[in-house]
């Protein structure tokens, strides 16, 4: 798996975590098997007795859909920003002014 594929898979895993409740059962099943369980398109097609192309099309459309949700809701972007701020807090734990500034930034995300 290339670095680009790995980054996409990681992103899709996070997006799936954030937005799975907005997906149909079929969409959830396909994304979970493909991105979380590392099933191939052929394995998913065989599991659900559909064509490989049907699985590919569904995964692509569902991926586009969760990206659209992220564009509108920014749950993953805000999660990443909070993680960055928490890490920065750890690095500046003895600097009260810096911690206060970072807490302010966290509150602005809410």
UniProtKB/TrEMBL annotation:
InterPro entries associated with the record: RNA_pol_sigma_r3/r4-like, UPF0122, UPF0122_fam_protein, WH-like_DNA-bd_sf
Pfam families reported for this sequence: UPF0122
The entry's keywords: DNA-binding
Tree of life domain: Bacteria
GO MF, one annotated term: DNA binding
Gene3D superfamilies: Winged helix-like DNA-binding domain superfamily/Winged helix DNA-binding domain (1.10.10.10)
Primary role: Might take part in the signal recognition particle (SRP) pathway. This is inferred from the conservation of its genetic proximity to ftsY/ffh. May be a regulatory protein.
Assigned protein family: Belongs to the UPF0122 family.
Entry protein name: UPF0122 protein CJ235_00020
Species assigned in the record: Staphylococcus pettenkoferi
């Amino acid at each position: 798996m290339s670095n680009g594929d790995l980054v996409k898979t990681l992103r899709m895993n996070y997006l799936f975590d954030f937005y799975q409740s907005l997906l149909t059962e079929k969409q959830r099943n396909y994304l979970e098997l493909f991105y979380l369980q590392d099933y191939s398109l052929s394995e998913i097609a065989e599991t659900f007795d559909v064509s490989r192309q049907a699985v590919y099309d569904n995964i692509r459309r569902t991926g586009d859909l969760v990206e659209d949700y992220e564009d509108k809701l920014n749950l993953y972007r805000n999660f990443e920003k909070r993680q960055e701020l928490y890490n920065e807090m750890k690095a500046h734990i003895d600097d009260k002014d810096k911690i206060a500034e970072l807490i302010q930034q966290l509150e602005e995300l809410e």
